[in-house]
Amino acid sequence: MSLARQNKRQGERIFWLVSLFAIALPLVILGWLLVDVLSDAVQRLSWQFITSYPSRKPENAGILPALVGSIYLIGLTASIALPIGVGAAIFLEEYGRHSRLAGVIEVNIANLAGVPSIIYGLLGLGVFVRALGMGRSLIAGAATMALLVLPMIIMVTREALRTVPMSLREACYGLGSTRWQSIWQVVLPSAFPGILTGAILAISRAIGETAPLVVVGALTYVTFVPDGIDAPFTVLPIQIFNWVSRPQHGFVVNSAAAITVLVCTMLVLNGIAIYLRNRLQQRKAT
Amino acid sequence: MTGHIDRNYEAQLDELRQRLMRMAAIVESMIGTAIRALVDGNVELAKETIRRDRSVNRLELEADSLCTEILARWQPVASDLRFVTIALKMVTDLERIGDLAVNICERVPDMVERPQPWDFKAIESMADVVRGMIHDAIEAFVTADTDRAQGVIDRDEEVDEIYHTMFRDLVATMKENPGTLVRDGIHVLSVAKWVERMADHSTNLAEQVVFMVKGKDVRHIGKLPDGAR
Amino acid sequence: MASGGSNGKPPKIAAVGLKARFGSNEVVRGVDMQISERTVTAIIGPSGCGKSTLLRTLNRMHELINGATVDGEVLLDGENVYAHEVDPVLLRRRVGMVFQKPNPFPSMSIRQNVLAGLSLTGRAVRAEADAVVEKALKQAALWEEVKDRLDAPGIGLSGGQQQRLCIARALAVEPEVLLMDEPCSALDPIATARIEDLIHVLKERYTIVIVTHNMQQAARVSEHTAFMLHGDLVEFAATNKLFTQPSDRRTEDYITGKFG
Predict the structure, then answer these.
(1) Residue B165: pLDDT above 70?
(2) Distance CA C211, CA A69 (A)
(3) Do the beta carbons of residue C231 and residue C49 sit within 8 Å?
(4) Which of C244, C253, C255 lies nearest to residue B2, judging by beta carbons?
(5) DSSP per residue over B168-190, as a string?
(6) Which of A40, A259, B210, C116 has the fewest CB atoms inside 10 Å of its own CB, making it the most exposed?
(7) pTM of the entire structure?
(8) Interface predicted TM-score of the whole assembly (ipTM), two decimals
(9) How do residues B202-229 score in pLDDT, each as one tens digit?
(10) Which residues contact C137 (CB under 8 A, 6 or more apart)?
(11) Do chains C and B touch (3 or more CB pairs under 8 A)?
């Protein structure tokens, strides 16, 4: 039997081409969009842009309140969602593994992750803004966003906990540790890279959310930086939305610039997530 | 009885068993022809018997080598281990029996020229018993029959009896007719001694079979220092 | 009733009518076994015979599996470890375990790994930490190889070294009994030989029970051997005797390789 190639393997080549096309198409479109935005934005991007307040005149308008609002919101959301999410995941994965309750919760969490975000906005409006009397404040927005990202954090944390091999837990028990000691000192540190990745992904999603915040009452024209968690606020996506609906061409440029800032922030956050995950995984996988 | 899962191992053990059985068969027959050659004064037969000892020696080397190989490669335990270690010893005993038959054959030329007043009946009957002992010992080995082996051990006494009677008679005869008879008498005594030694070796074979089957050491009963077992 | 040591002293650890189940499946079916102090006992048997399960009932690790139950008693120095008031966590500090696949904690250095048994259980020793680490690593015959890099990550070691690190970690807690569940099956022959040599030294201070599927290892390493089949303890005897003249036909057939 000769080793020379028998046929031309056309099928393989076609398949390769099709897959290549499948990845190239969205990348090309995305690239084109970004280039389009950047070309509009580049003239407007400046320190002044970032540190100014909105104004009727596009050349004076800046994103400071929106940017600060986004940052505060993310910070608050993370501090609410992370402890609750990780705690819930620990309960489901470590303590309640085989209970009926855990099974029910598990099914529902996956569903919750797919619920349209505006529903969360309505929920937030009813529960946080009105029923709990938080009003249209940062804290209400943060609570709402926390609910939104909670399912994702729980799922990712559970995955991360699952990747910790049973042998590590057994080693702990073999040494005479309690369940909590093993979770806190070995399992969580081991799962940390995964949890961190999940957290950052959740946050980068939260940064881009608009609809639920609109419902909860983020303002669209804000001339001050929020001064407390009960203060009114706005966020970058909403600011962009506001500018895009204005007729003046200057605002279109502004929105392009704001979009650029938003996209850059998301890229940076995701980049950090990937970098951290790679670093921490390398340390483990020797 | 189920065989070993490793069929190569099973085959090697079987080959060892076959070698032992072949050795025993040749040795048994050598005893027969050696005594025949002695009684008939047949020098040719004696020479042929001596030649056959070469096969016995060859089988000894092969069996030893096979035992070492089995020990190294399969680290046998329990009954397999007892089988292999006993096989090593049985091979030695069988080879010694063969050598003793050769010794007898080497005496034949010396005995041929003399007038033969000798009654070889006693030696013949001893040899018959010994051949039966070897045969039964190997049977017992193959069938793991300790009763049969015990029977062999018991027969050693019979051979000893015949030998002692022969010894007394020979001494008496030699005293009556000193001179040439003495030298021939000593030859005959040597042959008898060798046959008696063959019986001892056959007893060893039987004792080893008992150990292999039962794991009980029946050797040296009553002949060890106190508390040695 | 199978006894491992007849030197008149009470056994260090004993199983009495021990049964273990996974759900409704009985995997260990009424085992009685007595293990003397400072001896090495090996448990052998074909796959699925219950030997690992039996081992894990000795330090109450079996019940950690969902749906797993235990009946009967395990006596440690005469005291039943399955009694209602016994804290399994405290039991596992007296009866340590080394597992089949070396499992040093990946987020910890060698030093931290050795001390993990103490720090995990809230018994951090600051003052003599160095002494504890050195002693444990010396006992595990690993000190010379790692003494200059105690802060390197534990998982950077070779397989055999990792397993010795796990042994050091188990010994740092100063248990009385050491259970070893096929400790060498993931290791190469040289690493295996090192650990077997180590066991020979350790038995002067600890009572060791080792489960192994390697019969030659059991023969080399132990003083008493238990043969298990389908959840039953078929034979328990001095290793010498079991491997030259086993009493039970099933033992004979298994160790000579007629089934298993």
Answers:
(1) yes
(2) 62
(3) yes
(4) C253
(5) HHHHHHHHHS-SHHHHHHHHHHH
(6) A40
(7) 0.81
(8) 0.90
(9) 999 999 999 888 876 767 776 677 665 5
(10) C114, C143, C146, C147, C168
(11) yes
